[in-house]
Every structure is written in C-alpha cells, then in structure tokens.
Amino acid sequence: MTRFVSEALAKHERCGVGAYAICADAIKEDATAFYTKHQFQPLVSRPQTLFLPMKTAQELVSTLGRRPRRSQSISGFA
C-alpha cells in the first residue's frame, strides 16, 4: 500500500496540479475493508469509493520513509 501511495504522490508532484486526495473504487467488500485499514475514508454517498487526503498520504509515506525518487516511473498511472 505504501508503494501505491508513494507513487501517487510522486505523480502528483510531477503533474503540478492541486489535488485534495487519492481516490480508490473498491470492487468488493474485502477491498473496502483493506482501504479502510490503510486510512482511506469512504464517501458518505458512495461507501465503496474511498479517499485518502494528500496530507495523510504524505504523513504515511514520510513516516515509513519510502518516497520514490522523482525519476522513477509510475506503473499503473496514466
């Protein structure tokens, strides 16, 4: 999970656009539980759509010290 969050933060920095959160659409209930376990919060109107505020993501990555270098490619992101 930390790699996913790290890569999303790195992509965000490269794009230079503002963003409030990283979003995920959980397909199954166990996926929803997985994201919730990792501090994602469900939308009230769509509980299987979850978000992780950028500030929380940055804190998570800095705490674990696994931020990728800017030159690393981001797989899975367009």
Main attributes?
78 residues; Aminopeptidase; three-stranded antiparallel β-sheet; disordered C terminus
Please tell me about this protein's structure.
This protein is an alpha+beta fold and 78 residues long. The protein has one domain: Gcn5-related N-acetyltransferase (GNAT) (Aminopeptidase, 3-Layer(aba) Sandwich), CATH 3.40.630.30. Helices cover 44% and strands 15% of the residues. It is built from three helices and three strands, in the order αβαββα. It has a three-stranded antiparallel β-sheet. A hairpin with a 6-residue loop joins strand 2 and strand 3 (49-53). Helix 1 (2-15) crosses helix 3 (54-64). Mean pLDDT is 79; it is low at 69-78.
List the helices and strands and how they pair.
Layout: H1 2-15, E1 21-25, H2 29-37, E2 41-42, E3 49-53, H3 54-64
Antiparallel strand pairs: 1-3, 2-3
Q: Taking all residues together, what is the mean pLDDT?
A: 79
Quaternary organization: single chain
Number of strands: 3
Order of helices and strands: HEHEEH
Q: Which CATH first-tier class would you pick?
A: Alpha Beta
Which structural category fits the helices and strands?
A: alpha+beta
The percent range for helix content is 40-55%
Identify the CATH architecture. 3-Layer(aba) Sandwich
Main sheet record: 3 strands, antiparallel
